């Protein structure tokens, strides 16, 4: 399971890095707290972090669920695809928000697979006892 | 415990469905990324997802804590009430944000009970254990 | 481990309290849902909750990872520092957003340490295990 927790930890570090980029963008574009809107370039950095937050709350529980009911190796592999997908997403979004699609798909799909695998595994354990 | 993980997985799927609705509302109401404000109907879908995000980060750890220290059966039951409450909340909010109260209460109350049960259980284990 | 789960539960209760403050600020400053911007004093309360959400999704998994791979006692201690840091942050931000720095640091640093400890522990288990 440790490889799954390692991938989880790396996903959390990556997410914190996006948060760090938001802080830097605040200074660079002169967006004073508590504002988070009103400056389009800043909003790109902010939305990358927020969208990653939206996904990571699913990734973090889905990783151990999938690992427990299906396979720890496959959980780690799907988690690694997520990590790469988020790099693509982040770079794409900051260049041009209209081009965020591919990176989003590459990071969202592994989460869907992890979650569905975990749910099917848990359901089978409940109904077959 | 599998029934608790099943409920957790369903709550995460429901949350992702709300996220999917936000994506569809973006297209429908012509709200271009990175914007998330400026179109009131879009903001309703967005706030349903965001409010669910705000709750799910508590629900996900509270479910296994309550199951471990109190009862897995009751954890699953309270989680099921949450799931129904979020359906009511989502439909109510999108119709009229002023009517989001009942659905919010029905999804928030089980989380409070799960969390308090988990905290009391952990505190008892610390101080008597 | 129960002391770690107790600290986790207290962090989640504290976060819910910040959410409760947002609800109260909505009434007090007359900000009608779905709006979350347009009223600076309201936005302070909202950003305190949102920033806590951004951190808590890392804190919650980092606590048990650190406890498992490094030390449950130290995990609980660092979690306690986080709790105090968030009180300082919340009070500071609401008084004056420009003075949110010290409280942010005091709550962010323990999370970074918990996460790095968890990652190093998991990596060692993977590569030596």
Structure at a glance:
3 copies of one chain form a homotrimer. Chain A has 129 residues and is an all-alpha fold.
Helix content of chain A: over 70%
The most extensive interface, with participating residues per chain, is: A-C, 23 and 28 residues
Query: Biggest β-sheet of chain A: count, sense, barrel?
Result: none
Oligomer: homotrimer
Secondary structure tally, helices of chain A: 4
Poorly predicted regions of chain A are: none
Write the H/E string of chain A, N to C.
Answer: HHHH
Distance between the termini of chain A: 23 Å
Characterize the overall form of chain A.
elongated
Total strands of chain A: the figure is 0
Q: Would you tell me the overall average pLDDT of chain A?
A: 96
Approximately how much beta-strand content do the residues of chain A carry? under 5%
What structural class do the secondary elements of chain A suggest? mainly alpha
Radius of gyration of chain A: 17 Å
Detailed description of the structure:
The structure is a homotrimer of 129-residue chains. Chain A is mostly helical and 129 residues long. Chain A is 84% helix and 0% strand. Chain A is built from four helices and no strands. The relative contact order of chain A is 0.15. The mean pLDDT of chain A is 96. Chains in contact: A-B, A-C, B-C. Chain A binds chain C through residues 2-3, 5-6, 8-10, 12-13, 15-16, 19, 32-37, 49, 53, 56-57, 60, and chain C through 37, 40, 43-44, 46-47, 53-54, 57-58, 60-62, 65, 69, 93, 97-98, 100, 112, 115, 118-119, 122-123, 125-126, 129.
